Q: What sequence folds into this?
C-alpha cells in the first residue's frame, strides 16, 4: 500500500464540520470520501499508521460508517452498502443514538459508535488515485 498519506485539517476547518453530511462534503472537496475499510490488511495498515501519529495527538478519527438509517445496520457512506468488515472494540457499538463510527486510540485503535456531532473527532478521508490511495485527514 505505497502512496498513502495523511494530513490533519486546520482547526478552523474542524470547528465547522458538525455533521456526517458536512464531513462527507469535506472529503469530497478533497476529491475523496470518508474512509472505508474492507479488510484486515487495510485495517491493520490504517491502525499502524494512526498509532504513529496519535502518540503525539491522541485524536480520534471518523470512519465513513453509519447506522443512522436503520439502527444496528452499519453502512459505508461512500458506496451506501452494508459493511461486511467491522472492527468494533469490545462492548461497542453500545448506544443506539450513537450513529457514527470512529477509530479510538484508547480502545487500541478499534472502532466505537459515537454521537455524530462530536467536534473533537477528525475526519479521515481516502482519495483513490489511479494507482494509489491518499488519506487526507
Ligand atoms: Ca446507532
Ligand atoms: Ca459507543
A:
Amino acid at each position: 500500500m505505497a502512496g498513502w498519506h495523511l494530513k490533519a485539517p486546520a482547526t478552523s476547518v474542524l470547528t465547522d464540520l458538525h455533521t456526517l453530511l458536512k464531513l462527507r462534503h469535506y472529503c469530497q472537496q478533497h476529491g475523496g470520501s470518508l474512509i472505508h475499510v474492507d479488510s484486515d490488511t487495510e485495517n491493520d495498515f490504517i491502525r499502524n499508521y494512526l498509532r504513529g501519529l496519535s502518540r503525539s495527538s491522541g485524536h480520534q478519527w471518523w470512519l465513513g460508517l453509519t447506522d443512522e438509517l436503520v439502527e444496528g445496520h452499519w453502512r459505508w457512506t461512500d458506496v451506501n452498502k452494508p459493511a461486511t468488515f467491522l472492527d468494533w472494540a469490545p462492548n461497542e457499538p453500545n448506544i443506539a443514538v450513537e450513529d457514527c463510527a470512529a477509530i479510538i486510540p484508547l480502545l487500541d485503535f478499534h472502532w466505537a459508535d459515537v454521537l455524530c456531532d462530536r467536534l473533537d473527532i477528525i475526519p479521515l478521508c481516502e482519495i483513490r488515485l489511479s494507482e494509489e490511495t491518499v488519506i487526507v485527514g
